Amino acid sequence: MIVISIIVILMxxxxxxxxxxxxxxxxxxxxxxxxxxxxxxxxxTLDKKRAPQSLQELVxxxxxxxxxxxxxxxxxxxxxxxxxxxLMTVDQTQxxxxxxxxxxxxxxxxxxxxxxx
Length: 117
What we know:
Layout: H1 2-48, H2 55-60, E1 80-84, E2 96-101
Antiparallel strand pairs: 1-2
């Protein structure tokens, strides 16, 4: 009985830390995915002299292999793209996607909303 009590107490300490580490890992993946997609948007815009009109256009042109799943929402359909009429360079002929954010609701472990990352 004492052994079982000790195991339960240790599990009580371990479970919250495990959940926190899982959330931290998802947030790290989200940051990395956003960095990669923003870099692909910039490279596409500079190479093609026009901004992409959709994320699928980045995949079709070979700048991304696939549209990644948002690790917080678990879906590749929840990304929030930012379309702007401003041009990134003088040579750019067509505006389009200029930035991307997570479509997840809620705040990160740092206290900032995922939608502002």
